[in-house]
Amino acid sequence: MKRIYTFLLALTLVFSTFSAKAQLDIGFLLEAGANDANTYLSNYMAPAFRGLGFGMNGGWYQTAKPHKSLGFDLSVSLIASQVPAADEFFTFNNSEFENFYFAGGNSVQVPTMFGPNLGADDLPQLTVRDFSDIDSDGDLQEDLIRISAPTGLGLQEGDLGDILPFNAVPVPMVQLGVGLVKGTDLKVRFIPEQTIGDDATISLMGFGLLHDVTQWLPGENIFPLSLSVFAGFTQLNTEIFLDDSKTQSMSLEANSFTGQVIASKKILFFTPYVGLGFASSTSNVDLLGRFETENSVLTDPLSFEYEDSGFRANAGLTLELAVIRLNVDYAFQEYNTLTVGFGISIR
Amino acid sequence: MYKKLTLLTFLSLSLLWSCGEAGLESDISKVNEIEFTVSNITSEGVHFENASVNLADEEFADYLGDIEQFKVNKMEVQITAVSGDLASIAPYGNGNGGIIVSLDGSELLAVVYFGGSNGTTNHQLFHDGQGNLISTEKIVLYDEANPSNVQIPSSQEVVNILISALENRSTLNARVGFGGKFENANITLKVFLDLTARAQLN
What we know:
heterodimer; A: mainly beta; 3-stranded antiparallel sheet
């Protein structure tokens, strides 16, 4: 079981190494079987992975105006995907589970990972009942364990709350932009596979193209704004090994795509801009390997996917001082995102 | 360079993602079953069966390092099987019949079927009109949340003994005794202890 707890902890390592506090609360879920664990954890962790997807579509540009040929910029951004209040809890429906139920009714509201950190007295008790005779003792009414519903981590109540003004998934991003020809910039996000410690790997790649359409408009020289179209794709892969022999692991593949029209206008040192378009993302999470619970052995027990798509509108402001560029951006979508960034920009 | 960027990324996230100061709290509840089987007893008198149980290790081994307190929610007893030629707890000879269940010497359950005009003490739940033991539903001895559900009250001392054993991770000596008349009798009695551990992860 400890390995499973380790996995559940590691799952959250997709983003970071937040403390080991969550492991106990959700480890018991696998006792109810893989299907129930999938259902519960996919709901519990949804804000984290959905926020990641929305966040990965941020930070692509700081202006609609492309570089001159061979001009470039290098930028570092921290993107915060705001978790809506509605996603701080989800509805636990008994009908969606096989061995897992709430004895006090047919359904109950329980926290997601991004919910508040509640004490045991404020959390509903959930029960793993052996409806499908997991332990093969012929008793279909046996309660194997009751436990407080996993609490939210209360991230906004901790250090995160000191930094961000809202409950959010932080997504850092580093990228390089290079001016090509005909008013086109190539944006590249790339981290080759890196080993973190001895037990995790991460890689990231992304490509984007920004193309100035002002040049194709009649009256180009008198058009008051820079107008561009942009398309960008980002993929994050990570694998975290849970045992020394590296036979158990958690993997995440997250993909995001956005296509937008952008307008900007440089005024002295400032460049305000707006963007409007479409964004989509998918995240696939898998737990791979053989895992022992008290009553069974589960092979590759967890696999869940998140998909989001919709319109994305954003507005931002970039301050350029010589080659230094500072930027703030806010995007309106299902998970609104705030981006702050800095970098250098040449030509 | 890439490695530095990657490390920068992870370090920034590690900084940002930390839980609140309160830590995480969770209640874990389990029902421990102690099963006694008294087999092939023949003769009048009292017949005992013993068992040892370490509740902390059996039920909460995965969480022991994080538990800050235990609670006893409910205690129940049930006769799940009776077979044989005779298993009666009616008074016999000069003795009274009955059932006793104890934990470390303290009585969890004590029912005595008195003879003569000395009255009765809840033994009817365990036998038919002739005093023969029967399989029963779960009989509530202690219910912390709903005291009115208790059918045969147990002593608070037993609750204290349970909590002490959980906190000290010590082994409890459990004992059951059946008094009466028996011929080739087999009796199975279960004790159900509904326990909660409150874990705090800091």
